[in-house]
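From the methods appendix. Each design record in this collection lists the tokenized structure first, followed by the designed amino acid sequence. Records were kept in a plain field format so they could be parsed without special tools. The example shown here is representative of the layout used throughout.

RECORD:
FOLD TOKENS (278 positions):
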């Protein structure tokens, strides 16, 4: 990723030990559904008068107005965790409105700049006058461009790499990769075990608000993925070679028709993972 900070200068940006913690506010969009759960979680970070937005969410006037109110007088940048529309559709409009309201130059960052008009690659870290606000971490798997933000104090904004409330993120090949997703979950687990993650703040669903809950949530998702992989292997060994038979073997006869497409994508991701790791 490109970095707005000069090469070799990252070590100079330690956080002022006397600075108050970075404030983190959740503003949930009113777009609930099977894929978005209660709605897209937008996060506003505030450090003194400066502010940043992570995942602006849908192009919804009331939602964007709430974000603008939370940003205050010195918005610095808007970061999207991945290219999906429920996270990015409001990004360009929000940026323009923040600039028009405050007169500040507001950056727009996305790992896939083709998916978000007017964006550029995110820096390695978000830096305020008080020092480091958060570190950008590449977490591919849900999509190839997925990333997270490790905010001051160990608060991990996971995007859709890890959802709240035990929900599984959909992985749709070829953009999504279960192999890369498992590697990203392993990164999160290592950070949590090392004591660098104190809480998880997902793109959808509820946060895991303490270190033990965060580790449990990561471990539970890794176990869930491993169990699904084992189920698919067993089903194929028993002769379930078509998609219809695999769906019945893994998800049962009562699969909600509205979720069939996502279930098929998940099975394709598992089959791709099995082929890549055998």
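DESIGN:
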């Amino acid at each position: 990723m490109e970095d707005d900070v000069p090469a070799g200068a990252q070590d100079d940006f330690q956080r002022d030990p006397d600075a108050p913690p970075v404030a983190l506010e959740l503003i949930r969009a009113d777009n609930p559904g099977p894929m978005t759960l209660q709605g897209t979680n937008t996060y506003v970070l505030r450090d003194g008068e400066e502010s940043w937005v992570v995942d602006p969410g849908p192009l919804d006037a009331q939602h964007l107005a709430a974000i603008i109110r939370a940003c205050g007088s010195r918005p610095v940048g808007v970061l999207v965790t991945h290219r999906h529309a429920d996270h990015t559709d409001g990004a360009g409009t929000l940026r323009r409105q923040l600039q028009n309201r405050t007169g500040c130059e507001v950056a727009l960052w996305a790992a896939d700049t083709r998916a978000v008009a007017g964006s550029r690659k995110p820096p390695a870290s978000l830096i305020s006058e008080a020092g480091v606000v958060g570190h950008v971490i590449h977490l591919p798997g849900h999509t190839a461009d997925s990333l997270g933000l490790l905010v001051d104090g160990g608060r991990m904004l996971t995007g859709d790499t890890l959802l709240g409330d035990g929900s599984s993120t959909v992985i749709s090949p070829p953009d999504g990769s279960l192999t890369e997703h498992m590697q990203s979950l392993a990164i999160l687990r290592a950070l949590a075990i090392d004591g660098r993650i104190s809480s998880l703040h997902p793109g959808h669903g509820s946060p895991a608000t303490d270190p033990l809950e965060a580790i449990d949530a990561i471990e539970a998702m890794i176990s869930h993925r491993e169990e699904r992989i084992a189920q698919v292997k067993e089903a194929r060994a028993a002769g379930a070679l078509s998609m219809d038979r695999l769906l019945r073997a893994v998800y049962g006869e009562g699969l909600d028709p509205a979720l069939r497409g996502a279930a098929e994508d998940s099975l394709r991701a598992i089959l791709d993972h099995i082929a890549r790791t055998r």
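APPENDIX NOTE: The chain has a mean pLDDT of 94.
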